Amino acid sequence: MAGVRSYARLIGATALVALLAACGGKSAKEIPLGTYTAKQIYQRGEYELNTRKKPKDAAHFFSETERLYPYSPWAKRALIMEAYAYHESRQYDKSRAAARRYLEFYPADDDAAYAQYLVALSYYDQIDKVGRDQGVTFQALQALRDVIEKYPDTSYARSSVLKFDLAFDHLAAKEMEIGRYYLKRQNYAAAINRFRNVVQNYQTTDQVPEALERLVEAYTALGLTDQAQTAGAILGYNFRSSPYYDSAYKLLKEKGLSPKPKGRGWLREVYRQMIQGKWL
Length: 280
Description:
- The relative contact order is 0.06.
- The chain has 14 helices and no strands.
- The chain has a domain at 1-94.
- It starts with a helix and ends in a 5-residue tail after the last helix.
- The chain is mainly α.
- Keywords: Cell outer membrane, Lipoprotein, Membrane, Palmitate, Signal.
- It is a lipid-anchor.
C-alpha cells in the first residue's frame, strides 16, 4: 500500500484550513463541494480519515472527489482511498465495488495489488462463526487466490497466503461441526461423509486428526473394523502425539483391534498414498 500511505501522509494545511473554515458548522454531507478544488475535497477526506477517525465521512469526500473531478490526478488517488475508507467503516460491498472500479480503470497501477487485496478482505472480514453459512468463505478463498496468483511478489500475496490457510481451516471446521452433529445422533453414514471430506479435501488443516479419530468412532459403531483400523493407522502414522490418537487407540483396543491398514477402500488408498509421500 505504498501509494496509499504516501497519499494519506501529509495534508496541505492552507487549503485544508480554508475548506474547514468555509464548512462552518455544517455536517459533511451539507457542504457545497462543487465550489472547491479536487485537492481540497480530497484533503478533507484525509482529515476525516486520519484526524477525526471517521472513515464513513472520509469515503464520502473521496467519492465526491472522483465524481466531481473524474479526469483529475486526484480522482485516481481518491478511488483507492474510497475503497480503503469504506472497508474501515465496514461497508464491505461499497469497498469491493470501489476497489473493482480501480482495477478496471488502473489495472497496471502500483496500487492495483492493494485494490485486489481489498476485494479479498471485503469477503474475508465477513467470515462469521463456524456455524454460519460458508458462501462468503468460498468467495474469500477465490479472491485471496487471485491476489496470490496475480501479485505473487507482493506483501499482499504473503498476507493472502496466511488468510487463505485460515479460511480453508474454517471450512474444514464447518465440516467437522456438521459431522459431530450427525455422529452424536448416530447417523453414522452422514457423519462419515463429512469426516471423509475433511480427510480427503482439507489435508493441510488442523481438523484432520480429529476427523480420523471420529472415523474410528463411526466405523467401529457400524462394525466396519477394517476401515476403523485403517483410520487409526493413518492417525498414528501422522499424529501419534495427538490426544486424538490416544482416544482412537483406546477405542480400538476396547474392541480387540489395533491401528493397522486393513482391507480395501478409500482409507486404504489414503494410507497407500501416505506411505509413498503423496499425502500430508
